[in-house]
Amino acid sequence: MIRTVLPAEVADVVALHTRARATYYPDGLPQDGTDWSAVWHGALTRPDGRVLCAVEAGRIVALASFRVPEDAPADTVTLFQFHVDPGHWRQGVGSALHAACVEEWQADGRRTAVLDVHVDNQRAQGFYRRQGWVAEPAGPGEHHLRMRFAVPGE
Questions:
Q1: Which domains does the chain have, with CATH numbers?
Q2: Contact at 8 Å (CB) between 77 and 110?
Q3: Cα 90–Cα 23–Cα 9 angle in degrees, nearest 5
Q4: Per residue in 53-77, pLDDT tens?
Q5: C-alpha to C-alpha distance for 109 and 116, rounded to whole angstroms
Q6: How far is 29 from 31, CA to CA, in rounded Å?
Q7: Which residues pair with 145 in a beta bridge?
Q8: 80 φ/ψ angles, rounded to the nearest 5 degrees
Q9: What are phi and psi of 78, to 5 degrees?
Q10: Residue 59 — φ and ψ, nearest 5°?
Q11: Which of 54, 115, 120, 150 is the most buried (most CB within 10 A)?
Q12: What is the DSSP string of 26-73?
């Protein structure tokens, strides 16, 4: 089942986010002082954003956060976070959640989606490419790769 995440579920969201991100940092998840509970609570309560999740057996197993940033064209949406619990990789959960995002973007009249993915996260880059995302060239020393998705018309 795909649905909107509730603010009361922020602890579950942070836990899933942490498990997923830890998989692509070879030296462990960086401790940069980010208060992820506050970040996710902000994403969950923004009137201009959406956070969708996939739920199996009453548990959140994937999530996606997106919105149109203030400095972006009105027809462009940014996918800020997209995480699947590592125990659910390659089971179709991410593809189903991605399809739900695309449906929302179509309904909202978005024509382009963009995201930044960590350059070392080859697994995620492969997933996005299979969904139709295209990478823009990354410069030397950049930590993130910008990817673009042409939202199909309805």
A1: 2-150 (3.40.630.30)
A2: yes
A3: 80
A4: 999 999 999 999 999 988 888 899 9
A5: 22
A6: 6
A7: 117
A8: -85, -40
A9: -110, 125
A10: -120, 135
A11: 54
A12: TT--------HHHHHHHHHH-TTEEEEEEEETTEEEEEEEEE--TTS-
